[in-house]
Amino acid sequence: MKILVVGANGQIGKHLVQSIQASGSHTARAMLRKQEQEADFKELGAETYIADLEGEIDEITQAADDVDAVVFTAGSGPKTGKDKTIMVDLDGAVKTIEAAKQAGVKRFVMISSFDTTRRAIQNAPDSFAPYVIAKHYADEHLRNAGLDYTMIHPGTLTNDAGTGKVHTGTAVDAADVPREDIANVILESLKNDASIGKEFKVIGGQTPIQDSLQQL
């Protein structure tokens, strides 16, 4: 399976590309904004493609040519303003969904926020509400796009080493989870067709990732 990782230079994206390449049976195509970001990914043996999420859909469509799945891991980051939240977390996500459709790619994995419900929007602090709103509408667009999607809602992300064990479900209290484990949840989801059409929350836990996904 060849997997386009959108946001490959982000923290989850880097872990995901490493996991894909280490699998021995799958290949990553890292979508990057700048050529100077390519070297680390080429060392892993991954393909690279330069495209800007703030550009035209055609750029992303070309990046998705001849892949089997698309993963959206991009994010504007906590230090950017509301404009970047709209441009990346909403518009970038929607354009990636539409690009996957144009490229004929059915399999799509979205890394969302932990809670993107209307209640979460109402309860979010003013500084965080624009992000939750952006993710809410991006998620809604994916649900209605006709793709074979999986939507992953991580808990509070940390840079701790992955444990290979998580807790997943639709009704889960917020807690920490290593980014490395989220990357491996993505890969296991792509390998497991039972995750198609599912959306679930992920926090650190005691169940091996593969087993946890089987229980969804």
TrEMBL record:
It holds the Pfam family NAD_binding_10. Signal peptide: none annotated. Residues 7-192 form the NAD(P)-binding domain. InterPro entries: NAD(P)-bd_dom, NAD(P)-bd_dom_sf. Coiled coil: none annotated. It comes from the Bacteria. This is SDR family oxidoreductase. It comes from Lentibacillus kimchii.
